[in-house]
Model the fold of this input.
Amino acid sequence: MERKIVRTADGSKTIQLTDWNEQYHSLHGAVQEAYHVFIEAGLRQFSDRELSILEVGFGTGLNALITLLEAPSLGLKLHYTALETAPVSEAEWRELGYGSALDTTGAALWYEALHGCPWEEPFTLRDGFTLTKNNTDLRQFVAPAPAYDLIYFDAFGARVQPDLWTEDIFSSMFSALRPGGILVTYSAKGSVRRAMEAVGFRTERLPGPPGKREMLRASKPQDAHSLA
Done:
């Protein structure tokens, strides 16, 4: 499948899969989308605690990098698990240049470190941030349930990978979350929301990032131990 790096509307870059007409991030702004969907609607719902995050679609590493940079200001100690079936090449992540795009002290070094750290084992990038990258498919991943407080659901869209947006998948995500945990995604499709609700999630439609009217946030009820 042909892959090319393209510039998005906020000046940051992303990878485009031309055969699918699909991008790793929004063409309306890769960095803006990451902050809006995963940081504002997800990470910033927590503070002053230890937190376990599961990211579905490590991709370019942008969400992980921004999370690493934002966590200290929120008083969060993070255990970050990421799933990815096709890791980007070194040439690709270097050309994307998110460390420079974020214009934050140390971002370039952290960006290189998270791509350079080993797969399939926990790696402490810095005090308060441990990353475990798994080269595996979501459909084969078995989470130690319940293990996570927050899920970044950043799989490719349902148009090109409909089997990643089903009741079965969201049932496994529901089981993986601790009671009171949340899942955030850029998608706002009605079929996605209905699949989430069918397995026990409570859903919210939130304002979307640039270029999207809405996005979804799903929460697992505090009493979900009696529902799961």
Notes: The chain has one domain: 30-226. The chain has a mean pLDDT of 95.
